[in-house]
Amino acid sequence: MPDFPAPSGGARRGVLFDVDGTLIDSSYIHTIAWWGAFRQYGHDVSMAAIHQLVGMGGARLVDNLLPQDRDRSEDQDIMASHGALYASHWPSLRALDGAKDLLGQCREAGLAVALASSARERDLQVMRSVLDADAFIDAATSANDAEESKPAPDILEAALEALGIEAADAVYVGDAVWDMKAAAALGIPAIGVTCGGIHAAQLRDAGAVEVYEGPRHLLENLGASAIGRLLALETKS
């Protein structure tokens, strides 16, 4: 683990982290929950198709996967069903290897840390409990903080505002194509992680400046990463 000196005067730069699939091993749980919700309302959607869109906001995901001539009055019920099915898996949630250590190293090195999640507020609370890393987290967003979901950049903008930093002074870490696109919309360098099940080539094609296997792999290469470069700028200023 690289030893970065913490700068004096407080953090002026920061790292934004997606949570589902990036810090918490939940992407496939969401896939199963969406699959079950669709089946409850008579829609047979493949898990592979669902998984590719996990990380996109629920309304967008439903609209992209179901026929355009469907009964849209059921959309909210489908999303509620997904939420209930996902909540039934809360006891199974676990942090990905190195997640807490990665957050801690970034924070202790002097960077502000935000969870830029579009999860429901209650889901986010559960995931924060699983992470057990609140001592290293300066701010967190939920679905309540954005008008538009990813790939729109609203969640990232809310996280930047919560930290009081500019997009030029941030790096984003996420596991989905939609994370990369949201960061690109604001000109934020995005680090991709494949622990959510999306291939490295897909993340790079969507704008990732680099890709790692997961939090532990990123932590082991932190000095050479976009976060390391941000830290180098921080210690010089």
Automatic annotation (TrEMBL):
One of its GO terms (molecular function) is phosphoglycolate phosphatase activity. It holds the Pfam family HAD_2. InterPro entries: HAD-like_hydrolase_sf (IPR050155), HAD-like_sf (IPR036412), HAD-SF_hydro_IA (IPR006439), HAD_2 (IPR041492), HAD_sf (IPR023214), PGP-like_dom2 (IPR023198). It comes from Pseudarthrobacter phenanthrenivorans (Arthrobacter phenanthrenivorans). Keywords: Hydrolase. This is HAD family hydrolase. Transmembrane segments: none annotated. PANTHER family: BLL8046 PROTEIN, PHOSPHOGLYCOLATE PHOSPHATASE. GO terms for biological process: DNA repair.
